[in-house]
């Protein structure tokens, strides 16, 4: 006998209430006592944990957690689950922005432009794109898609006027990879290596 949508919704709300109070016994009982709703509850619980926002005090654990989640998803889906954007890709591999830039022999300012989606994809040569993709262990197509999905991190400045806030939300101007490197304070040897 299948439960109706309202009953399942009530079970989900009961599970959430138990989650907020840390009552694991009730959560397990909900799953055990309602076998006909187990599949829907398990899907709900999984989605809840995957989409749960990290608490500010757990920011240090975020890269480790993201790598663990990536590994789990890869095992479940028998293959690689690619990050949505370059910032997530870097974080999933446990690197800071500066560390990734240093290992790539790029200026941190140049790599930040990649993560902010400022670098124009068409300005990358096949060799450059391949090198970036290989560094992150993804295909050139996957790296391209992540670059296209990349955008600046939204920041909140409460003192900002509404007009200034609107102006700061505008999409930054695209820049060629060569132009970003030319404007960077990178060592000449690193610039030459990329151009």
Structure characterization notes:
With 195 residues, this protein is an all-alpha fold. The protein folds into 2 domains: 7-76, no CATH class; 86-194, Orthogonal Bundle (434 Repressor (Amino-terminal Domain)), CATH 1.10.260. Helix content is 62%, strand content 0%. The protein is built from 12 helices and no strands. Helix 8 packs across helix 9 (140-149). The longest helix has 17 residues, at 5-21. The mean pLDDT is 79.
Number of strands: 0
Under the CATH scheme, the architecture of the largest domain is Orthogonal Bundle
Can you give the helix content as a percent range? 55-70%
One letter per element, helices H and strands E, the order comes to: HHHHHHHHHHHH
> What's the rounded overall pLDDT mean?
79
Please tell me what the overall shape is: elongated
Which terms would index this structure?
195 residues; mainly alpha; 434 Repressor (Amino-terminal Domain); 2 domains; 62% helix
List the helices and strands and how they pair.
Elements: H1 5-21, H2 24-33, H3 38-51, H4 62-76, H5 86-92, H6 97-104, H7 108-115, H8 126-135, H9 140-149, H10 162-168, H11 177-183, H12 188-194
In brief:
This protein has 195 residues and is an all-alpha fold. It has helices spanning 5-21, 24-33, 38-51, 62-76, 86-92, 97-104, 108-115, 126-135, 140-149, 162-168, 177-183, 188-194. It folds into two domains: 7-76, no CATH class; 86-194, 434 Repressor (Amino-terminal Domain).
